[in-house]
Amino acid sequence: MAGYPEETRVVDVSEELESGVLDAVEAIDGEPSEVLLTKQDKALVDVISGTLGPVLTRLGFGGALGFCTGYAIKQASKVVATALGVGFVCLQGMQYAGYIEVRWDKIRGDLIKRVDTDGSGTVTTRDIKYYVTKVFGILKFHGPHAAGFSSGLVYGFRW
């Protein structure tokens, strides 16, 4: 067939179109689309592109990367929180049964020494701000469009 690559095959979908299973095949840049969608698939594509499309077009490439990064951080933090929670339950259970003795006051003190950046002896908002700023600096270092990335990161984390 003229105008089509060799691997393109033409399929007769007239029955599906008449029965309403398929929507009309739309042309992309004047060429017939290679993907046939059911009406339900087309509705789903419209919802997804209608929801994410405006956000991604405003934020651009940097925003899209930021969104993906924020979403990944959110999912990873859930895994870490789950692991820490399960670990705590296991340690407490073993301590309750008399197998081990956990010195929570020592663990807390050692942890605070490691994360306390201002030397106050407690974890404060200043400490958290320090680490968040450090992470942002790492993620945006020579990255694409820092403003879009930051906005996308926040949006992805909240998604």
Automatic annotation (TrEMBL):
Localization per Swiss-Prot or TrEMBL: Membrane
Protein name: FUN14 domain-containing protein 1
GO cellular component, one term: membrane
Record PANTHER family: FUN14 DOMAIN CONTAINING (PTHR21346), TRANSMEMBRANE PROTEIN (PTHR21346:SF10)
Keywords (A to Z) from UniProt: Membrane, Transmembrane, Transmembrane helix
Primary location: membrane
Family affiliation: Belongs to the FUN14 family.
Organism listed in the record: Hondaea fermentalgiana
InterPro entries named in the record: EF_Hand_1_Ca_BS (IPR018247), FUN14 (IPR007014)
PROSITE patterns (UniProt xref): EF_HAND_1
Pfam families documented for this protein: FUN14
